[in-house]
Amino acid sequence: GIFVFGSNLSGIHGKGAAKTAKKWGAKNGLGEGLSGSTYALPTVKEKIKGPLSLTQIKKHVDTFIQFAKGAPIYQFYVTEVGCGLGGYTPKDIAPLFKDAIEVQNISLPQVFWDILLEN
Question: What angle (nearest 5°) sits at the alpha carbon of residue 91, between those of residues 117 and 24?
């Protein structure tokens, strides 16, 4: 399985799920993409200068979904990206994953499912 965590564009994995991801191969300096058994999904600006906009995060989520579709041998376990240091709530972030609902190899947090299925 692949641990999908919220990252910053600089790839500084010092806190939260990003710090945990280092145990499974997340590389410092890589702010987006596959590394070891992890996938960095940007939700914070370079040098941790605040959150990306929801529009910017949506672009990174779409990139991730396309990547996952092209890598069916992996199961991707998405954390509550953007909801820690990113400063957003699950109600902000969950709708960005609407296109992941039908993707068999993407597992979303239950709180995201609860929000997606109520709409």
Answer: 90
